[in-house]
Amino acid sequence: MRKLNPKTLTAALAVAASVALPAAAQEASGPILFTNVTVFDGVNEALIENANVVVTGNKITEVSLEPLAVAGGRVIDGGGRTLMPGMIEGHAHIMLHTDPVQLLISQDAFEQGVRAAKRANDYLMSGFTTVRDLGGNCFGVKKAIDAGVFSGPRIYCGGAGIGQTSGHGDFRMPFDGHPVLDGPEFGGTANRYKHTLIADGADDVRRSVREMLFRGASHIKIHAGGGVTSFTDPLQAAQYTQEELKAAVEEATRYGTYVTVHAQLNNSVVGALDSGVRVIEHGLVLEEDTVKRMKELGVFYSPQAFLPLQDVSGNPQFQAPIQQAKLAMVAEGTRNAFDLARKYDLKILWGTDVFGGDEIFKNFTQEFAFRDEFWSPIEQMKQVTGNNAEVLALSGLKNPYPDAPLGVIQSGAYADIILVNGDPTTDIKLLMDAERNIDLIMKDGVIYKNTVK
Description:
By secondary structure, this protein is of the alpha/beta class. It has helices at 109-125, 139-146, 189-192, 202-215, 242-254, 266-274, 288-297, 306-309, 321-343, 358-361, 366-371, 377-393, 434-437; strands at 3-4, 8-11, 26-27, 32-39, 47-56, 59-64, 74-77, 82-85, 87-92, 128-133, 154-157, 161-163, 196-198, 220-223, 259-265, 279-285, 300-302, 347-348, 417-420, 438-443, 446-450.
């Protein structure tokens, strides 16, 4: 890997207010100076050797090759470790932490909130300082983390995934009624708790989008096609009409943010592109003309390798025959979709779509290993930091953290930082085991883990 040695990359000092924090976190009373680190800045392939990084308050205030001192501050000798932005999970489901999986549609709301709090902390302690949530009523958990009630990552919360009756987001049981035909109290747990919302017709879609924006959504998630986990929709079914999809895009745009869509197959991706959608989730069965068009439109591509390429024999998420058949279809198209994405140099996001209990979640970082077949370590590092941060910035007027950039190491950026014991540009799998290989985790200028000797 080529090393970059400019004299001084950035210089500035700034002080930001801190927030109330859990006792386990280490809140600095003055600046923190990281010395003797190799910096990956989240954007450039060239690394910065023997660098010094200053954090003041909740922001990075200097990145330099010159010796630095911080009056009244703290010095952490990185010992040659890799300093990089805190990682960003691009496709999370904080609220969907259940064991067994069936509790997703029957669990008590208070228990679900407690489990979500644990899942949030698990993400943070895995080195993920931000998550982009794509389906679930995560607003309360986000507020509690931001208020310092418990530890967790920044959450960009989209709220309920919005979908049509009998679409991918329709997780009612056979004995449930319909939230419109029979009343919200009979319309199923997922819809009642607003983890998903059933909306039919352009006016109903507009109303549901506006409701999520009122709740605090930073983006809008729409189900535009069939899914693997759902039981009532064929995978091949393109969902929502152009009128309905355009209504969602129009409402999100009016509020200064964007729509992302669940779309596995080519037909649902095409419908989304026709409607002005900015981000495609999954998109694992694609045709070349569609991928070329995605590039021309500057659309972000958010695929998952962990989902289709894993051995699901022991994974309770996908044991039903209908799910197995759908997953086989997606898996068959994945490698071709990834090859096309590389051919046309799409802007790739890093995410896993993991949900379920701890036994499932503990393997979510295997996404790095599965992607290793298709993308170099440095490409993955850019995906999980700078690329993901770009799509977070699309939230615009609805950005919950608007005061500084995320996913980068530069002056003025939020101080979301991890120290890796080793060089992930040569071995991406180091990032799979935070307990062994990530020695320091900082979010918003606060240290949550520090085993640096």
